[in-house]
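Input protein
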Amino acid sequence: MIEGTSFLFNKETCFEYDGPKLESIEYFLNVLIRDKNKVFRAETGEEQTTILFKLNEKNHDNLNEEQFSIQFSDDLSQMSVISADELGIIYAILHISEAYLGVDKFWFWNDCEPPPKANVKIRAVPYLSEVAKVRFREIWFINDEVLISTWKYQQSNTYVWEMAFEALLRCNGNMVIPGTDIKNPIYKDIARKMGNFGLHITMQSP
């Protein structure tokens, strides 16, 4: 890559958010911080760059629903990630996690951690995500909720459910059937939380 045409993503890179305060954005920014710390394990002493996530509800960039764009400042000190809606920002965060940090969509389920790196040089070319061809995209029906409901990872069953929903979003899904019994308190609360994050939650009759 030609020197001076790339954005430097490293341990020193900071994340900023410009938009309404939303629990979902805070949650997934923490996911990206988690992934960044997995990949970049030590500071390099290199320059600090910024990735700015901007939720532009007035949609001055004329983006489609759930779409996002990536742009770079002239001095390559900032990457701007713009979307007009909540899910667009979430998809953008997870795109950065996979495309630049190398985190697999099913990293948790396949026990596949990303390899460590000193830094990543991102070609400074504007990016526009594709528009989904289908409005509601149901990736799977979690039909083994009885088994998942008894599985704990690091003493937490909630974490296991969070990983299921994270994988769905990494696959650009926006609809899920979490189980057959919406009254089940084990996954009802986490399903409601993800519904508040913009996912469409539906139920399958027994």
Summary: The CA atoms of residues 54 and 82 lie 5 Å apart.
